[in-house]
């Protein structure tokens, strides 16, 4: 099994950015992805996000377990889109080019393929950046950065705890899964889909209870230390904004503006090549 989705302390230009910079960049990047279905913009964003992954020195194999679930989600999402709206692309692009008939009312069209390709490209443009944010952001430094830009230190600290807790949830999931499989519960590919869904309850319920127990322990520890009594607090991992932070924010704002301009020029969110 591959490594967990957690912070990796590497030496790269992405790691040197403050946590607040990466959050601001992620927000504008997500907004740019949401406002447009222009294939050219989304394709450029996807390529840029892959380049940023390379620059960060994070290996895709280190998060392959997470990528597997993302790919499964995208496959299910595309099947659901076609099942419930097989002609959404036809309505959007005001044209229809049939490829071949499938079954019943379902006919595969070029416009539907293009529409679903753009939907998938949207995910591919934002997911790498979201993963990059997770694995290159030190939770403590991120909390300090949030507090520096005006976010309450209580909220900032809560966010930091949540980020730290993600790897723990993943470890608990694997430990519980292995323990249940040792008891004879089959979660492998050999079991049918229905059986695996049913058997997953044997993992989810213990995971929920262990998470609630950990939350209670953390809450008690913070209460005993009188967390929240003071209006301000100091941060060991705090870092000021530097030139590279402003450059990174300016770049993603330019991407967001480009998405808005493309939407204006296309007369809507969709780029229509038909």
UniProtKB/TrEMBL annotation:
Subcellular location: Membrane
Top-rank taxon, per record: Bacteria
Main localization, broad class: membrane
A Pfam cross-reference name: CbiQ
Ranges annotated as spanning the membrane: 26-53, 65-84, 113-135, 246-265
Membrane topology note: Multi-pass membrane protein
Keywords tagged on the record: Membrane, Transmembrane, Transmembrane helix
Keyword Transmembrane assigned: yes
Alphabetized InterPro entries for the sequence: ABC/ECF_trnsptr_transmembrane
Protein name: Energy-coupling factor transporter transmembrane protein EcfT
Organism: Clostridium hominis
Organism classification: Bacteria, Bacillati, Bacillota, Clostridia, Eubacteriales
